[in-house]
């Protein structure tokens, strides 16, 4: 077995016209680790995910999954074992919950086009196995009871969980979650945290983008902070939340957002501070 990191981004840069959205950003994710990616609005977090998943071709830099360079095409990246969810939920609203997960599962189905066309025995066996796996995943994320519901009818938090189930259906070794708790209430957020821990416990490594720093500091093994396309700080949650550069970067936000951010950071610090 290779001892290569689950995911490695080496000095990734992305330039849009005159804008350098990412400047030599590196990140390493060990197997079984949860890494958080935080930073003020426009820091380049989603652009970084897009570079990792082949949606954007980085201007320079390399991305390796399990030590092997990833292809530049999103579908091939998924097949290679890197799955993601999106900041804005991207489900098929007129399909059922089960069908949405099956879409993810089809990445792993082996039937050739002729078998699919003829609906032969191999196709039917494959379909049965796909449904079984999709149902297991719905059970895993807690959505079994609504498998026949149209996905557009699900509450927001359940739609986010469904997106995760669909990503898991591709059998990833690494899962990227872009703002998985955005718009969730505190109960849903806590359920999302527990779900991410359970995903990690199955052996999948996870990278999470989140604005909720308290969530990140209590979830992740390590945290990377991006500011204006640059890697500002990388370290354990304790190292990062105590770093004055991080507080300063967040205070650079518009005045109306400052107080909320200070409170988030303070809460995160207070919880983890040794008994204070
Ligand atoms: N396709 C694109 N074309 C041009 N500029 C882009 C493109 N995608 C992102 N950018 C720019 O790159 C910068 C980084 O944006 P990005 O969305 O990655 O930040 P972010 O950290 O994810 O922000 P947020 O927290 O608000 O989602 C921004 O200035 C953005 O306008």
Automatic annotation (TrEMBL):
It comes from the Bacteria. Signal peptide: none annotated. The keyword Nucleotide-binding applies. GO terms for molecular function: ATP binding; ATP hydrolysis activity; L-isoleucine transmembrane transporter activity; L-phenylalanine transmembrane transporter activity; L-valine transmembrane transporter activity. SMART domains: AAA. Residues 7-253 form the ABC transporter domain. It holds the Pfam family ABC_tran. GO terms for biological process: D-alanine transmembrane transport; L-alanine transport; L-isoleucine import across plasma membrane; L-valine import across plasma membrane. The keyword Transmembrane helix does not apply. Keywords: ATP-binding, Nucleotide-binding, Transport. Gene3D superfamilies: P-loop containing nucleotide triphosphate hydrolases. GO terms for cellular component: plasma membrane. This is High-affinity branched-chain amino acid transport ATP-binding protein LivG. It comes from Kutzneria albida DSM 43870.
């Amino acid at each position: 077995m290779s001892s290569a990191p689950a995911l490695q981004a080496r000095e990734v840069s992305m330039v849009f016209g005159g804008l350098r959205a990412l400047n030599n950003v590196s990140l390493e994710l060990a197997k079984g680790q949860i890494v958080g990616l935080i930073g003020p609005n426009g820091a380049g977090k989603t652009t970084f995910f897009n570079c990792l998943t082949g949606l954007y071709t980085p201007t320079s830099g390399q991305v390796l999954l399990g030590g092997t360079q990833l292809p530049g095409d999103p579908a091939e990246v998924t097949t290679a074992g890197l799955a993601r969810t999106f900041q804005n939920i991207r489900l098929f609203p007129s399909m059922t919950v089960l069908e949405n997960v099956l879409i993810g599962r089809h990445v792993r189905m082996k039937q050739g086009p002729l078998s699919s066309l003829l609906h032969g025995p191999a196709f039917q066996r494959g379909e049965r196995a796909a449904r079984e796996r999709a149902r297991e995943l719905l059970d895993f994320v807690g959505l079994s009871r609504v498998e026949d519901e149209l996905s557009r009818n699900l509450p927001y938090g359940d739609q986010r969980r469904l997106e995760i189930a669909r990503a898991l259906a591709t059998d990833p070794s690494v899962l990227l979650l872009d703002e998985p708790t955005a718009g969730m209430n505190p109960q849903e957020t806590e359920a999302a945290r527990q779900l991410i821990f359970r995903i990690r416990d199955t052996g999948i490594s996870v990278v999470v983008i989140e604005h909720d720093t308290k969530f990140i500091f209590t979830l992740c093994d390590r945290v990377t902070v991006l500011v204006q396309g640059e890697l500002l700080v990388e370290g354990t949650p304790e190292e990062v939340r105590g770093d004055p550069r991080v507080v300063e970067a967040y205070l650079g936000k518009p005045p109306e957002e400052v107080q909320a951010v200070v409170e988030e950071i303070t809460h995160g610090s207070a919880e983890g501070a040794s008994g204070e």
